[in-house]
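Before a computer can learn anything about folding, someone has to put a protein's shape into writing. The three-dimensional part falls to structure tokens, numbers that each stand for a local backbone shape. The protein below has been through that process, and both of its lines are reproduced in full.
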Amino acid sequence: MALGNRYKSAPGAGTLAALILVLVFGSPWYANWASDNTNPDTAGGWWLRLLAWPRWSFDSSDSLREIVVGDLKAILLVVLTALFLVLLPGSQLARARGTISQFFAGWASYIFAGGFAALLTTLFLANPSLLSAFQAAGNGAAYGLFVGWIVGFATLGGYRGTR
């Protein structure tokens, strides 16, 4: 059981894990630390930098549009994770708590949420293009692929609800 509560719901636990990932690793303090202290040419350094992908900030030197788009990406990542966790049938249709379908549903939810959050926020940039939207969605999906297993583990053991 991932979070230790036998009465937790799989979508709730996955959403909480996504919120913690965004708040901790998307913070300006972690992003600055990762860029200053890791080597992007190593696997560990690349992964530690990838954790900071949905960064949010309150830097006054950025334009208001960049701040809103960056923060919107982090907010949408959490909201879309919750939405996909509810919509994906793996966590809802699992016969027993802790099945592998809950893990994959949580992981897939984070992949989809990362891709769609990046795609939607690209529309708010100054000069959005189809190419930049596709590249951003690819970056968001790559983030979800390499980090989403944490959300997948968080969803293990949750009850499926009464649908």
